[in-house]
Amino acid sequence: MRPTWGAALWGALLLAWGLRATRKGPPEDGTFYYGSFPQGFSWGVGSSAFQTEGAWEQDSKGPSVWDTFTLSGRGRAPGDTAEVACDSYHRVQEDVALLRELGVTHYRFSLSWPRLLPTGVRADGLNQKGLRFYSDLIDALLQSNITPVVTLHHWDLPQPLQARWGGWQNASMAALFRDYADLCFQAFGDRVRLWLTFADPRTMVEEGYETGRHPPGLQLQGTGLYVAAHHIIKAHTLAWHSYNSTWRGRQRGLVGISLSCSWAEPLDAGDPEDLEAAERFLHFCLGWFAGPIFTGDYPQAMKQNIGRKSVEQGLERSRLPAFSRQEQGLIRGTADFLGLGHFTTRYVAARSWPAGQGPSYRDDQGLQELADPRWPAAGYPWGIRRLLHFAQTQYGDPPIYVSENGVPQRTACAQLCDEWRVRYLRGYVNEVLKAIKDGVRVRGYTCWSLLDQFEWDRGYAERYGFYFVDFASTVRPRYPKASAHFYKRMVQANGFPSAQEVGRWHLQALESCSINSQMLAAEPLRSHMQMVTEIVVPTVGTLCVLLAAVLLAVLLRRRC
Ligand SMILES: *[C@@H]1O[C@H](CO)[C@@H](O)[C@H](O)[C@H]1NC(C)=O
Ligand SMILES: *[C@@H]1O[C@H](CO)[C@@H](O)[C@H](O)[C@H]1NC(C)=O
């Protein structure tokens, strides 16, 4: 259901009123906390295969659903494809050098399932060149003292699995994923200790099977996404058990999952209905996957709401599938840690008007999400601390890695001086530190992302990177932004030593970016010079040689 103008206007009024009525969070939220992270805290950046690699049909890689979707112009940014993206497939050494420059202790990246298994099916054969590519990347990281954190599946499903089996709608996908995961454990597990099975599966199924904005582009309102998620949870479970029973003894690694969710702040914290709506938001967003994996079943709020609505809609069974007793036992406890992705905060109010037409994920939640029109550029950093607390109390105090956190720039042009991102980063990381002081077991922080990359249905219109990528140039040059400099200092210091020190980083970061901006501005001139040396000089040179040869021939002829 798309929000109507009436609803939007109503929402805006409600928000204006609500923000007046609520406080801006507890007072300690506003103060900055100077201090260090625990020793051995892991600092990293993230990326994913489809968004960065390019080389979409090289070296026997099979097509993914994203290749098919973008190449047929079905994205919201038609014409933007990831055929080359950051060209990271050919620039691994360059990327690893940037990671060394940042000084991070881990790098989170994903394996492309169709690059390793072109048809998606293990029995159909492994692509040795794909294997070699990831093996080399892992070795290069280890040689640089950087821990690889590997996502098995970040949205780029092999197209044949979609075409032949209907993708995640089909229960047989769970075993196919298990076989793929098992292959990865076997091939890379001697060197990889930290695994994530899936990355943000909620967005994958919501956009793929409900809104249709992502492949496979289906709009199976209020049904398809629940079925897909059900199979994904089973796939995760099988992969975890495969690791636990076959590989853990030898490899001693950890297998988790990365789940992304906004924090939901009740619009009016004094209104019990808004409070309940905000909690419901979190259960539909995070609990949908974390509930089964950590506690054995879907959250009560989901079972109740979807069940009730299904009855009202005249259905015999709930649109939310159910796990059997036996399945619950198998699923419960299948994460050695929680990977938590978080980008922003939403204000949430209970919805008090009738639902729209037909069933939908939005309708099932029975709430209204509101964006703050005065949204501060640096976000609402306290949201991450509250979300970490929620995860700690709901899911039995698991070890947590912040697996994604960042902010995009919505412009195609180069702005290396991203002071607003520096402020976002400083604020959010500080709230993670506060959560650790509160007792949440946060083990690492991963900023999203290393490079500006292909942003799914947004194409190249959003830039999340520490490094600006010039997508107009064939060599895809990378330039550090101010935030890269700031992050590097924070990682080096393992936290925030003092106001004076942090203030100094801020100034240095801005100085460094103004120098880099000048270099970038000179880029057209440089590539012009490059063209002169690469094309004009050889061409002129060849012509001279030819001319000389002709003259020589003429001279020789004369002599005879
Ligand atoms: C699911 O996959 C199997 C093959 O494993 C296929 O025979 C079946 O038709 C598929 N079911 C659906 C609903 O697509
Ligand atoms: C994981 O493997 C260990 C060792 O084989 C076993 O004792 C344990 O029961 C397994 N855990 C689960 C939940 O199956």
Automatic annotation (TrEMBL):
- Keywords per UniProt: Glycosidase, Hydrolase, Membrane, Signal, Transmembrane, Transmembrane helix
Q: Which GO terms describe its biological process?
A: carbohydrate catabolic process
Q: Which residues cross the membrane?
A: 535-556
User: Which region is the signal sequence?
Assistant: 1-21
Enzyme Commission designation: 3.2.1.21, 3.2.1.45, 3.2.1.46
Listed GO MF terms: beta-glucosidase activity; galactosylceramidase activity; glucosylceramidase activity
Q: What is a single Pfam family found in this protein's UniProt entry?
A: Glyco_hydro_1
Main EC class of this protein?
hydrolase
Reactions listed under catalytic activity: a beta-D-galactosyl-(1<->1')-N-acylsphing-4-enine + H2O = an N-acylsphing-4-enine + D-galactose; beta-D-glucosyl-(1<->1)-N-octadecanoylsphing-4-enine + H2O = N-octadecanoylsphing-4-enine + D-glucose; beta-D-galactosyl-(1<->1')-N-octadecanoylsphing-4-enine + H2O = N-octadecanoylsphing-4-enine + D-galactose; beta-D-glucosyl-(1<->1)-sphing-4-enine + H2O = sphing-4-enine + D-glucose
The family database entries (PANTHER family) matched by this protein are listed as: GLYCOSYL HYDROLASE (PTHR10353), LACTASE-LIKE PROTEIN (PTHR10353:SF336)
- Family named by the database record: Belongs to the glycosyl hydrolase 1 family. Klotho subfamily.
Report what the protein is called: Cytosolic beta-glucosidase
